[in-house]
Amino acid sequence: MKSYFCCTILWLVYLTNCLFFRLRVQPGERCKSAPSISLELRYNALATIARTGFSIPSHPKDMPSNDSNTTPLHSDAPAGWARDTSNAREPSSKGELDPVAKSPRFIVVEGPLRVGKTTLAKILADKLHARRLYDCDDNPFLSDFYKEKPGSALRTQMYFLMERQKRIREALAAGTPAPVLSDFLLEKDRIFANLNLDDEELKLYDRYYEVLTAGIPAPDLVIYLQAKPEVLRARIEKKASREESEISPDYIEEVARAYEHFFFHYAASDLLVINTSEIDFVERSEDLQQLLRRLQDPVKGTQYFLPLGASE
């Protein structure tokens, strides 16, 4: 009788776990196989990549301890990030930045969906007379991924990885005197692989990732745009494509958390963090002008920028 009772309890626990993962995995979130590698280990792997570039730890013992709890989620300035409100030099009379006076030759604007990275990248590329590098937006497997077709998550991620590394290599090999400005960071691919692939898929992906990213230099400067999940959801609802409209609120928050964890540990390049929750580079010219003035001065290490007119 006691054995029967214990088996019944274990069976109920198993069914509860299955129900939990079924409720969490919504269309457009991740593959149907729920990850069995603990989220702690997955986030630790991201932290290692953020610190060391493209190196992926092969064993859990190589992974650093998870100190993500020290990062206030979606706050203004996470612990250890210095807020920068200093007055920088004025842009030129034409409102343009001087590409000769600035050392960064490979600049990346990165952030979660609808945070404004594409818009800002276009503006900065025009001001810097930079060569623009676009992220992949024609993935043929993405539609199947949003429909949760078996195997689509790995196919989608592998296509993104192949295209992104190819575009970066071609842009950096062109040898043009103009700086390169990209609206994606290659490590972004690993962030989404971490969220969407199951254990075996992630192991296979990591093997290709290390080979395909070998020899690609880190950017000189990364501009990380962050925003609160509710702000991202509102922007997605306002401007979303048909596929984006299928993304669940839980997934948006999970992506935002993964980005914050990654960039809290990021050390491969100089990093400027901008909270865009209450600023608008398109509608408010003063927000843009303050950022352009800030970029006239070098960014060293990790610094945080918030326009003086933004709400605290």
Q: In words, what does this structure look like?
A:
It is a single chain. The protein is an alpha/beta fold. The chain has a single domain, classed as P-loop containing nucleotide triphosphate hydrolases (Rossmann fold), CATH 3.40.50. 44% of the residues lie in helices and 10% in strands. Strands 1-7-6-5-2-4-3 form a 7-stranded parallel sheet, sandwiched between helices. The chain is globular, with a radius of gyration of 21 Å. 36% of the residues are buried.
Structural class: alpha/beta
- Superfamily (CATH H level) name: P-loop containing nucleotide triphosphate hydrolases
- Count of discrete structural domains: 1
| SSE string, helices as H and strands as E | HHEEHEHHEHHEHHEHE
**C-alpha Rg, in Å?**
21 Å
Q: What is the mean predicted local confidence, pLDDT?
A: 75
Side by side, the strands of the main sheet go: 1-7-6-5-2-4-3
What is the highest CATH level, the class? Alpha Beta
Shape type? globular
Helix percentage range: 40-55%
Distance between the termini: 62 Å
Question: How many beta strands in the DSSP annotation?
Answer: 7
CATH fold category name:
Rossmann fold
CATH architecture: 3-Layer(aba) Sandwich
Low-pLDDT sequence parts: 2-36, 58-94, 98-102
What portion of the residues fall into strands of 2 or more residues? 5-15%
- Main beta sheet: 7 strands, parallel
Helical segment count: 10
